[in-house]
Amino acid sequence: MTALCHPDHGARLPRRSSEELYRQKSEGGKDLLRYAPEAVMKKILIGMIILFFSAFTFAGTGTDAMSFLKINPSARGASIGDGFVSIVDDVNAVFYNPAGLSQLNDMQFSLMHMLYMAETSYEYASFAMPAGDNLSLGAYVIYLNYGSIDKTTEDLNGVYSASNGSYNPSDMAVAISGSYKLGDLSIGLTAKYATETIDAVSISGVLFDAGILTNLMGIKVGATMCNVGTAGSDKAPMHARLGGSGKLQMLTEDDLTVAAGADYVFAGGKVTASAGVEWKYENFLFLRGSYSPLSDADTLNLGLGFRQDLGGFIGEVAYNFSMLGDLGSAHRISVGVKLGDDDRSYNGKAKKKSISKTTGTDNGSKQKSALKYYFKKK
């Protein structure tokens, strides 16, 4: 049997399996060598990072279908940029990185309306909640309407003329997400059904996202592989994203978040990258912005947000303005609701859970407590 020497006393100890080491308890009841499963997860994170950079070797050509799945659905996420994949501390983790759902302590909802190019409108609704000590679940729906388009015919001279008919192209996606937490590491998975419809022709597909989130010496790191699956007979809009974020102080502790990230689209072999910031004042006012020098569109994003404790639930409103280059601009408006106390300050650290004097239960993880508290206030 192979033996190990204790670094302090030189005692020889028998080698044990990682499972035995993880289950071993100290007299205080804390896990010894809790890093055993975390070490495995860090290897997964490293593997995803390697996969992201090795993707350049397999750069594809052409275009992909269902490109609407790459549009940012959150005013806050769009304003911060690609680095938001490492923050994801709100309900929108269901879209950007499902691993981030493990950071939520209470049920959350979000709605977003975007005025996109031409007459196009984009609608998004999301929901997330903790489902246990380490498990969190979420879901979202996306609907993109391109407006009414006249049908045209071509005469013998090659001239197009409008006909009496018209059609309304649209896109839709429905997704469910789950996240599981192991110490400072979280993994997540999203399954989605997406469809594109143009007049009487439509394509559909089932796609998956996988994500991981961890904290390395105070720097949050997140990575995702998105839209892996089928899109009819066309290429799926698969892309990989990697980002990191950290905290700085301007006026108060941890009031400034700095984030940076990169995104790689497989179909065209294109890489974009951006750097962004989020500054908060008294956890009420939020100013956001990001810049992407490698992007043909969506180069500059600016955002504003407000957050207020309304007694039993938290209300949030966020606005985003995106510069789309030659395509013009886009405006996003998001509205979010979080049940429970104001125990999150967008810094990736949740406050200690408190016991409600009204209900005598844990408001940090029990949605029923939040609902009872709200109705009693009413």
Task: Characterise the protein shown here.
The protein is mainly beta and 378 residues long. The chain has one domain (74-155, 166-377): Porin (Beta Barrel). The protein contains 5 helices and 18 strands. The chain has helices at residues 18-23, 35-54, 75-80, 93-96, 367-377; strands at 3-5, 12-14, 108-115, 121-130, 135-145, 149-154, 160-167, 170-182, 185-198, 201-216, 219-229, 239-248, 256-265, 270-281, 285-291, 300-309, 313-323, 329-339. A 14-stranded antiparallel β-barrel has the order 3-4-5-8-9-10-11-12-13-14-15-16-17-18. A hairpin with a 6-residue loop joins strand 1 and strand 2 (12-14). The longest helix has 20 residues, at 35-54. The protein is globular. Mean pLDDT is 79; it is low at 1-36, 49-61 and 344-378.
